[in-house]
Amino acid sequence: MNDLTQSAFNKPRVVGQRTPRIDGEFKLTGRAGYTGELLAEGMLYGYPVPATIANGVLESLELDDALAMPGVVDILHHGHFEHLHRSPNSMAHGDMVSEVRLPFEDERIYYHGQYVALVVAETFEQARAAAYRVIARYKEEDGAAIGLLHTDAQGELQESAGTSRGDPEAAFGGAEVKIDSTYQIAAESHLQMEMHATLAEWRDDGKRLVVHESTQGVFFQRNAMARIFGLAQENLEVISHYIGSGFGNKLFMWPHAVATAVAARMAGRPVKVVLPRQQDMTGGGNRPASRQRVRLGADRSGKLTSVIHDSTTETSLVHQYVDACGSATPSFYACDNVSTSQRVLEVNHGTPCPMRAPGEVSGIFALETAMDELAVELGMDPVELRQKNNAEQDPASGLPWSSKHLDECLTSAARRFGWDKRNPAVGSMRDGDEIVGYGMASCTWSAGRQPCEARVELRADGSLFAACGTQDIGTGTYTIVAQAVAELTGADLSRIEVKLGETSLPAGPLSGGSMATATVLPAVAAAVRDALDAIKEVATGSGGAFEGSDADSLEAEQGGLTDGKRRVSFEEILETGKLSSVNGKGSAAPGDERSEYSFRSFGAHFVEIRIDPDISRVRVARVVSTIDIGRAINPPTARNQVEGGIVMGLGMGLLEKLDYDPRDARLINANVADYIVPTHADAPDIDVELLDYPDFKHNEFGGRGVGEIGLTGVAPAIANAIYHATGKRYRDLPITIEALLAAS
Amino acid sequence: MRTFAFSRADDVAQAAHQTAPEAAFVAGGTTLLDLVKLDVMRPSELIDINRLPLKNVEWLDDGRLKIGALVTNTDLAHHPDVQQHYPVLSQALLAGASTQLRNMATTAGNVMQRTRCPYYRDPAAACNRREPGSGCDARHGLNRLNAVLGGSDACVAVHPSDMCVAMAAIGATLTLQGPEGEREVAFQDFHRLPGDTPHIEHDLADGELITAITLDAPLVPAGSYYLKLRDRASYEFALASTAAQLSLDGEMIGEARVALGGVGTKPWRCPEAEAALVGQPAEMATFERAADIALRDAVPLEHNAFKIPLARQSIIRALREATRLARQSGEQEGQA
Ligand SMILES: Cc1cc2nc3c(=O)[nH]c(=O)nc-3n(C[C@H](O)[C@H](O)[C@H](O)COP(=O)(O)OP(=O)(O)OC[C@H]3O[C@@H](n4cnc5c(N)ncnc54)[C@H](O)[C@@H]3O)c2cc1C
Ligand code: SF4
To answer: What CATH number should be reported for the domain whose range is A24-32+449-589?
Structure first.
């Protein structure tokens, strides 16, 4: 199975072709039910009451007025809640959660926005109105642990998160050319379109819990809830059919979901909670702020001799989250002496969690800015510097790459961008009031894969059905599963039904880490093959359309089987056999190839910025990117991921910043007007090229996943372009107007 | 969100009469409902004024343009008379908010919009403007968005409107209808400096309704420019903005009007800067001098000092552009 060099998909028919989303119609017509929109018979609404302080104790709750409000059914809080257990929070056991502390577990307040109560009422408006009537009295304490970027605190060293090879300190000490810089990135919000939402319902006299959740991992949530509620996994169902994106903050369950399920049990009725945007931003996850020091040593020719990358990121007081900034660094460049270290600082902020390209995107900002600094120091073209240090094999593991085309990414993007027209002299390119700056950076993301199961049915009505307990978070997973089925059966896409996002389906992976495509498709393919074996058996059995033929001589073609002379449809074969359907089960998992090769995607971004120094205005005018993600299963949705990543990178580079008040650690811009993300007017001209080198060592479809890589490398390319325009090196993100002014 | 009574007003006099002190008029609702949902505004009663006949834009005999209180920001921005004679107002409106908001927002509502000071919008924070005597969390807090002009110990909140900056530069008069009848207030007197009473934001008595805003007669022939500087390209309040209008007398500046947004506790007209422009050569040195005068009294807070040089940049560039446009329109006049 794992000799994947010979793939069935060398010349695919549907895979790799532009395929409209099969769920597009449902979304456009409003029939795709997102969790927040779902209704259940007798359903109640919950509205959390958030703490208004970030550090202290909840002294009392006055609930009488709120309880007397129309429609109010109950108010849950520390003194009125079920006794629950914590989830073991294990990645290996699939029960990791975003915040191990249970809701209302104690009366300490660890962060602004922490829930102190949940009002349950007949309507959303009643619940919200009553939530505003709850009077919470706090004893606020001085000395809140404030954000990393406002303090000198060092944080705890995470021994397990560091790596080292060679003697980086000595090599740095003796290097001919040195860069030693510190980079700081503000905390960011995921700001996914659809807020966190849960609809919980107890069935069978409270023995079974059914939860609809906007989640990137139905199985993780089921497993965690089973631990928390002490239920058998079989008695819990988690469903997530449509998700308005997640960017990582919906990978693992948050406390609102637990509180909702408790509310439903206590009320004996289904309860739905949709977090308002403010609470989604205070308590629904964030990318923690980071401080990183990067030291590069090189010889005069530009060859790296030492890379030392030390990072600190924030976590909350109720959950340990490590945003591993250095995780790409050991594999990025050919260099014998490399070390990374990671510290974590506990702060009185809402718990951080993975956010698109977690850790690495921050790390790559630091590393790729440092590389630009080195190029300037050496008087060398930054593209050439990267080519010079290209890692021909993975220097971290010593293994060969499964497939790497970074050099082509660099040269192709440079050509399309017009990099040769760049005058390297700072501030030398002008256009009216504007200075034009060109900058670039490489990007990368690891290519992982998880075990996965899937099920496929060929049905007598001519339809085909595929199911897997993974999710489509808006990226197009439904469609690529259908493509895989169509590819292997020749059936028309319109006949294929795909079901995802339920724990009653075969176990599927988290939609995260850019792993879903490479994980799910091989399992679906195995299930299709299993179903084809089953139908071949029917067809070659007595009375079958190919009675007496050797099953191996039959091939699937256009939704039927052929022996090369004639083709009989699946429909007809099942009809003849008096069968409603045949079933195929499949599973797939990464195998020995993981110890033979290293798997990682690479690419390059080239950015043109325009800065009007007399009005301190900087805008990204153009981004040209070439990315090698193996094969793009559905090119438009793959490209869309990269384009979205570029726009998000623009936000990271120039705009986005969660503002925690350094006096008391409260978050003051938890709304979409004051937390500034790019608008359409900010989106530059974007030209994305996806190289098409199927990586059959990774999986038989040749795709490595695309959700995250596009974001990495954008912010440093912008900062490098601004350097080129202004001669000022920006090492803190976002690069604000005040920073531009301070430099002028 | 708290419960409130709701009614609709059918005529102006009735609207001005029926109000209880805790009542509020609702026009587009884009400020009001937002703040009600944040629990910042707590009206006991909402009076929907959208049926009132205050949606006209008309020239008065004395050459001024009268704008009904309920004309939407979108309609006003695209009104041909505004585009032609008061382009700075059209530009300012279009620089504000988003299309959807402008479709709802009204002229009077825009004048009455509240500050975006984050602590004002958070009922858990100390804020003299929201709750007199409670203190001012912005003064020593995250005050990047706050004012450098017109602040007091009690409050340093910015008036966030773009439209009002253009109106301040153009000059205008508000018509108010109260239980006692109609009165007029000059635009520059309508918004109050915070002083010791930041909660009293406007010269508007209980129950008084704004029925119209009348713009001063346009400057002719003139160039005008609204420049709004902010972090992103659209859909963000100004960090600093300038509405500039000037007429030329050969190479010299004839009349000049300058008003600032994003930096002042009210829409900030700059009469001394204007005086420094009039009769001077229309060149960068003059603009720079005017900008320095306009910002002479600016007082920075911990996080907003950048607004002073930024506002300076916006004044200079807006004047440069207004001059360019004035020259253009002068040339067109000459050719005609
Ligand atoms: C996300 C967002 C972004 C925005 N960005 C900008 C921006 O960039 N620039 C900008 O200038 N503005 C911006 N705005 C503000 C917007 O322009 C105002 O909300 C709008 O103009 C208010 O008008 P309205 O008709 O909706 O007022 P309402 O919300 O209906 O009323 C506002 C206030 O005025 C009172 N009122 C209304 N009509 C009258 C009347 N006739 N007489 C007396 N009192 C009255 C109400 O009682 C209330 O106190 C933004 C708003 C939002 C929500
Ligand atoms: S500046 Fe004004 S609005 Fe802001 S907190 Fe202080 S008093 Fe309130």
So the answer is: 3.30.365.10
